[in-house]
Amino acid sequence: MGILTALSPLGIRYSQELRPYPYLIFFVVLTFFTVDRLIEDLRWRSWFVLLTAATGGLYSHYFYFLVALPSGILLVERSLSRDVLMRARGRRALGAAAAAGALALVAFLPWLGRLLNLGSHSSTGGAPIWDFAAAGLRWQFLTVGAREGEPLTLLGALLLVLFAVGAGVAMTSARGRAVLVGAIGGTVGAEFMLHLGHHWSNARYDTVGWVFVVVLIGIGLAKCCVFVNRRWAFPLAVGLSLLAGAVAVAAYDQRGRQHWDLVAKAVRHLHRPGEPVFTENEWTYASLGYYLVGPDFQSRSQVDLPLVAVNGDLTRLRALWPADGCAIFVTAGVPHFDVIRRGLHEFPLLASYPYTDEADIFLLTPVVRQKMLEAGMREIGPGVVGTNSCGSDLRVLPYSLRGPDGGVLEAARRGLHDWYSRTPAVSGY
């Protein structure tokens, strides 16, 4: 199980991102482990650890409370045990856990207002439609998928079989049943809550369930090794797990991990002194700015490389883009602004990173700006052609700045050159 967890693309993804999910995983594991320890040996030290884990978990993510399902099932089962000693331990642990949970909720009160305010806001994405195909896509991403939307593979199907075997084995013990409840509650339960709130779905919201899913896959794998009853079965299973995990991690690095560092290097290479750099939205602005300027990009003057988020405002774009000059425009992330994208497709495409939020780097030129104005797109303003040769030099991106996806286009061949060959009568772009 340690190998499966350590080499899980989903675990690696969220251990590298500045998001609350690594903390959520930590507090979920710590909570469930401490509850089990409380049953066996009720001490103040364990109780304090549970209180700390519950408080930290509530502040780390709103879905942390789902760990109460497997923990509660385990405590209740122990409290109803036929064994007198186990029943007494279970009831004492149940009371101690309830007290720790109540104190954690009291500690969470300062943030409760924000949670209620968040719940009153409507989601922009809407609830997804679930079917077997959508469930297969989600399972693939939770186990070995490199990126969201990847179809179910043979390896993913094999892990689903191991999960089913592990679930069958888990039904025979109290701890196993608690783990199974955690897997179902942390995935299906989380999605049900999102559906009730008409909120869009993402695999990261199933993180609580993922913790227990990995455990059940490990149990299933161990059961298969016992069933084979061969000395080589366990080493072979470990070796195959390592190989499968390495393949999944390599695929994640190729197609799943975002490479905003390469996008920033490409922008800096293609940028010319004095040219502004525009982004489609705040998402792209933050992702690009961090690697392009630095962690303090919002407070720095950015004199050498001005970075501006347009957010679909053509008036803002017109005011900050000199009529006789070029500019770099980067589209990616959400939200998409169709009024901007329709115009950008007329400009030369310098580079494309499909696996980094579908990031595209365009060169805004006075010639295309003038043509768009003549075509009726008056909001963008006229372009002063011929006074600045900012786009006459072909901007070629070196191979070293191509992303692992191989999606970067060389401007000399597919961008500026193609556009220039279609308009031979116009110069000075």
Architecture overview:
This protein is mostly helical. It folds into two domains: 2-256, no CATH class; 260-422, no CATH class. The protein is 59% helix and 5% strand. It has helices at residues 2-6, 9-16, 21-40, 44-60, 68-79, 84-119, 132-143, 154-170, 174-196, 207-228, 233-256, 260-270, 282-292, 314-320, 338-344, 366-374, 411-414, 416-422, and strands spanning 277-279, 307-309, 327-331, 349-353, 359-364. The chain has a five-stranded mixed β-sheet with strand order 2-1-3-5-4. α3 runs antiparallel to α6. It is elongated. The relative contact order is 0.09. Mean pLDDT is 81; it is low at 405-429.
SSE sequence, one letter per element = HHHHHHHHHHHHEHEHEHEEHHH
Low-confidence stretches: 405-429
For the largest beta-sheet, the strand count, sense and barrel status come to: 5 strands, mixed
Beta fraction? 5-15%
Q: What is the helix content? A: 55-70%
Decide which structural class fits the backbone: mainly alpha
The quaternary state of the protein chains shown equals: single chain
Strand line-up across the major sheet: 2-1-3-5-4
- Terminal Cα separation, in Å? 59 Å
Q: What's the Cα radius of gyration?
A: 27 Å
Number of helices: 18
Q: List how many beta strands DSSP finds.
A: 5
- What number of structural domains do the residues give? 2
Average pLDDT number: 81
Structure summarized in a few sentences:
This protein is mainly α and 429 residues long. 59% of the residues lie in helices and 5% in strands.
